[in-house]
Amino acid sequence: MTNTIGWELYRTFLAVLQEGSQSGAARALGLAQPTVGRHISALEESLGVALFTRSQTGLLPTDLALTLREDLEAMHSTAAALERNARGLGAGIRGAVRVSASEVVGVEVLPPILVALREQHPRLEIELVLSNKVQDLVRREADIAVRMTSPQQDVLLATRVGEVPVGLYAHRSYITAHGQPQQMADLAQHALIGFDQETPFIRAASERQPLWKRENFAWRCDSDLAQRALLRAGAGIGACQVELARREPELVRVLADEFVFPLTTWVVMHEGLRSNPRFRAVFDALVEGLRRYTQGQG
């Protein structure tokens, strides 16, 4: 086994794992497909193992290849963080900051906060990652995250910005056609818009509201944005952040006294980034902007 293996070989290997084929990896990396093939062969030769088996359906990763994936993704995150740090060298607040948030927060809440920040610091570069998956800040999958769960790792700097209430809503057209539930038990007679895969938030909501379970939903989707689109289309009754629903007069709140779920919101980053001016500027702007939002001023 060769002592030193260039990062470009590992990067290509990870791209093949993520894309599922050499052609997909070539497109993602901007390389020619034969180059990708040479990288994989060189890596297999250096490691002295087979990473893929060839079949009629394409490349199949070996068990060893799959066990390496987590470490490779950590290496990729670290390399990306180093690149962001390098672009931020020099005087003033400049360079890239990677911000992670849920779909709905990233689309509906953060843009005006971040636009105002870049007007103050035009040399900032913002990478906005929208995912309901919790990004690993220790591994630098993101630099700063907006989370609806309390961070557990001691190396993270976290500021609680407030609570975002979530209620049940339906479009006026749905209420006109199907009536309005008067108590929670009435939801059994309505088309409910909900999740497909369970998350910690959904698990907690289901414990408090037994009817809010997957098997009771007529519409199942894990995208918050798609659920809001279904609400606006009059598909049924679903959950929505109260502040966002206020922006849409056609959405009617139902069972306001019986269903309210507060989302405690945090802004989080690695403790080691505290003294870096650009990370601190983005962190402070998010804390201030999200506090206004949780207070109904966003």
From TrEMBL:
It comes from the Bacteria. Keywords: DNA-binding, Transcription, Transcription regulation. GO terms for biological process: DNA-templated transcription. PROSITE patterns: HTH_LYSR. Pfam families: HTH_1, LysR_substrate. Belongs to the LysR transcriptional regulatory family. The keyword Ligase does not apply. Transmembrane segments: none annotated. Residues 11-62 form the HTH lysR-type domain. This is LysR family transcriptional regulator. One of its GO terms (molecular function) is sequence-specific DNA binding.
